[in-house]
Amino acid sequence: MLAKLVREFPERDGLFYEPKWDGFRCIVFRDGDEIVLGSRNEKPLDRYFPELREALFANVPDRCVLDGEIVIVGPSGLDFDALSQRIHPAESRVTLLSVTTPASFVAFDLLALGDRDLTEEPYAHRRTALEAALGEAKSPIHLTPATTDPDVARDWFSRFEGAGLDGVVAKDHDGHYQAGKRVMMKIKHERTADCVVGGFRWHKDGGVGSLLLGLFDTEGVLHSAGVASGFSVDRRSEFADALAPLQKGAADNHPWMTIADDPEQRVPGAQSRWSGGKDLSWEALRPELIAEVSYDHLQGNRFRHATSFKRWRPDRSPSSCTYAQLDTPVPSEVAEVFGLGG
User: Fold this and answer.
1) pTM for the complete prediction?
2) pLDDT digits (tens, 9 = 90+) for 272-322
3) 29, exposed or middle or buried, with CB in 10 Å at 0-12, 13-18, 19+?
4) Which strand (E) or helix (H) includes residue 174?
5) How far apart are CA 287 and CA 277, in angstroms?
6) What is the CATH number of the domain that holds 164?
7) Residues 326, 330, 335, 338: is their CA dihedral positive or negative?
8) Of 85, 139, 167, 248, whose Cβ has the fewest other Cβ atoms within 10 Å?
9) Are residues 174 and 206 in the same domain?
10) Catalytic residue among 20, 171, 186, 188
11) Range of the domain at 308
């Protein structure tokens, strides 16, 4: 079951609110001595998180199906980069990381218990059953907090961003579990930032498919900070015309054309385990154009998700596009969030 994005905080009778965890969505199937961890695209996650198997055996009912999120907690809150490192082909590497950066499982729904299929039962019933099933669970297995008080949910929305949480999810108390349907609501943090456009990628229709965004650090280094994408056909064509003058001489001494010594400096076009061999080639632009984009939050020194283009900012200079303009959430302990769930 999925969630649709809403911009206004929903507030009405019959809603449950939960923190939105930023990790890997996972369905846990347990049948006695068998456990399977399934991803959202139905691929097994078992081999990547071996440390969770024994913890699940010790903390969940003998026969059940749980919906939840696999997360890794680091010194500054949820660490999605560390989580991504776990999807590795080498078993020895996965084994090492399972010890050095162990994962946790946060349950937020119960789909089956024994012979009881709960998917046709209201969420309020499923939540009660989930609390009973995991009420005594111990770390690294956790029950997500839930509340019916919108004021509490708003407090979570603002306070727990500093722990790396992604926002708040709202669910109808009488809603059935509808796999593949966007029937939940998610409220995510959204801010704006002015970024240097350091390059772009072509769309297959000949227009601009995405803008490559940059931000300056305190040393004056322009970091590749993410992308803006999702443009309409008309806008893709419009952007191609607007960017053409900035291509001339752009590759000469462009800060992203070579990999910097700084390991935190990511360069567009680098392949990763997530790129799937896709063509990530890009066109350099002279770093003179400024775009205002909306974003949800940062992961390290990059935007966690693709941003949305809002407008050009001809009134801003490239040097003003620094990390200092970005909101920095007040740090919050993930343990506090876990504690709310018992």
Assistant:
1) 0.77
2) 444 455 566 899 999 999 999 999 888 878 898 889 999 999 888 999 999
3) middle
4) none
5) 28
6) 3.30.470.30
7) negative
8) 248
9) no
10) 20
11) 191-325
